[in-house]
Amino acid sequence: MLRVELARRSCHAYRLRQSGCPAWSAGVGCPRGALCCPPPGRLPCCPGAARGLSEGSCPAPGASIVKPLDGVKILDLTRVLAGPFATMNLGDLGAEVIKVEKPGVGDDTRSWGPPFVGTESAYFLSVNRNKKSIAVNMKNPKGAKIIKQLAALCDVFVENYVPGKLTAMGLGYEDINKIAPQIVYCSITGYGQTGPKCQQAGYDSIAAAVSGLLHITGTEGGEPVRPGVAMTDLATGLYAYGAIMAALIQRQKTGKGMHLDCSLMASQVACLSHIASNFLNCQIEAQRWGTGHASIVPYQAFKTKDGYIVVGAGNDQQFATVCKILNLSKISHDPRYKNNQQRVLNRKELIGILSARFLEEETTKWLELFEGSGVPYGPINSMKQVFTDPQVLHNGLIMEMNHPTVGKIAVPGSAIKCSQFEVSKPKPPPLLGQHTVDVLKGTLGYRDDDIQELLSSGVVAGHKLM
User: pLDDT tens digits, residue range 399-441?
Assistant: First the structure.
């Protein structure tokens, strides 16, 4: 611990603070944004501070390894899916996430059901673990003041309001940046902060339609089909998650925060990948292929005697193997199917031959025959089959926790595995306003009588556990 203390005292930030720097006294960090002058509690020169640890949390040499975002505070003003998905993933990596909700109703998804688990929406439970909930009326000046006070103590501010709405409350990026120049302020919208559509509300299905996803999703020649989960929302959440992580690394280099502009439209257009490239470079308009692929044949689902199997032949050798398994080796030598380019040109005839053969056996039989072949394959699983799959269980993709009112719940686990820590022992999704009093008192230092006045006036709302 002596080494840690010496490192602190040699840090320029420490000397600034001890000398009575006005910015430090105001609790907002150095207006110059110098690397060694972050907000109070952030000491880059002391061991461990580069990982976002608060003052006094720097581990001594040989201490147990912390999660990457331990000590990082996230102020989460998001609702529904894209934003909550991003902040949940940050929480899995150790960040303290303070979720701000509207008193009385909370996040929209609290009412999205059925199904409900007791009184809790299964939808809400799916993307809000590892968070604290405070219920604050931000339209009230006293409520907006609470948000500003929290922002001054936080590293990241995430919101998904229509551009201009938070600015009207004094909580836009420019407002927050004045009191918290260290803040990474991430805005998630439907169409971005500027432009002809920026004031339109962002909904997954609409953004998926406008961005072309629904144009390419559905059966060949059929109606457009919405993906079974909100992939545009989820992709945006992942882009925001990655951008926030990058901005935190950038802040270590510059001492300054930044404004991140993430949108559903931008995320989905970026995810059009090769479909977009086909059009931009070759002027080939996209179409729907069902489970098939525009540029690889065969690469799709085939109906079996009792279900479906998905098979993909990404090269000529794999196609030859598929033909061998199907006892159709002869067609692998047919000039019409000798390479992928020819197979794409003669897709209809080839798929007809393969489809007829797959119909002759049950799915389990085909799975046995393809096992160990080197060809990508798999069944189309129901949810019951997914969550009894041995690999899903092995990868720990079912995360269980005890909810304060409904008991044991389970949600999909984290998609990543790290060698030095585990995303384990998650905190259950919070009740609306469950942590309001704790945050006001423990984080902001409010007195009991002040908290009671805020509760009585409806500026904030709490939730007492029985």
Answer: 999 999 999 999 999 998 888 888 778 999 999 999 999 999 9
* Placement of tokens 């931009």 in the chain: 280
Distances (CA, A) of 354 to 297, 306, 321, 413, 416: 11, 16, 13, 37, 36
C-alpha distance from residue 286 to each of 227, 248, 291, 360 (Å)? 17, 38, 14, 33
Q: Tokens at residue 277, please?
A: 């490239």
Tokens of 195: 């432009």
Check residue 208 and give left, alpha or beta (phi > 0: left; psi -120 to 50: alpha).
Answer: alpha
Single out the residue of 133, 126, 28, 140 nearest to residue 76, CA to CA: 133
3-class SS of residue 436: helix
Contact 312, 376 (CB under 8 A): yes
The span from the CA of 148 to the CA of 461, in Å, is 18
181 prior amide bond cis, ω within 30: no
Which amino acid is it at 436? T
Please identify which residue in the block is written with the tokens 């901005």.
247
Report pLDDT digits (tens) over 213-223.
999 999 999 99
Q: Are 172 and 244 in contact (CB under 8 A)?
A: no
pLDDT for 64 equals 57
> Residue with structure tokens 């989460």?
76
Q: Cα(460)–Cα(437) distance, rounded to whole angstroms?
A: 9
Place of tokens 């690999």: 391
Angle CA 254–258–259, to nearest 5: 170
Catalytic residue positions? 233
359 phi, psi to nearest 5 deg: -70, -15
Q: What is the DSSP string of 52-105?
A: TPPTT-PPPTTPPPPPTTTT-EEEEE--TTHHHHHHHHHHHTT-EEEEEE-TTT
CA distances from 268 to 190, 230, 341 (A): 11, 11, 28
- Reduce the secondary structure of 204-265 to three states and give it as a string: HHHHHHHCCCCCCCCCCCCCCCCCCCCHHHHHHHHHHHHHHHHHHHHHHHHCCCEEEEEEHH
Residues 6+ apart with CB under 8 A from 6: none
- Is residue 466 scored above 80 in pLDDT? no
Exposure string (b/e) for 245-283, b if CB count within 10 Å is 16 or more?
A: bebbeebeeebbbbbbbbbbbbbbbebbeebeebeeeee
Token pair belonging to 90:
């940050």
Instruction: Quickly tell me which residue has 């002027």 as its tokens.
Output: 283
Does residue 348 have a pLDDT over 90? Answer: yes
**What is the token pair recorded at 339?**
């390479």
Two tokens, residue 30:
């150095």
Residue 415 has a CB neighbour count (10 Å cut-off) of 11
Q: Is the predicted pLDDT of residue 208 greater than 70, yes or no?
A: yes
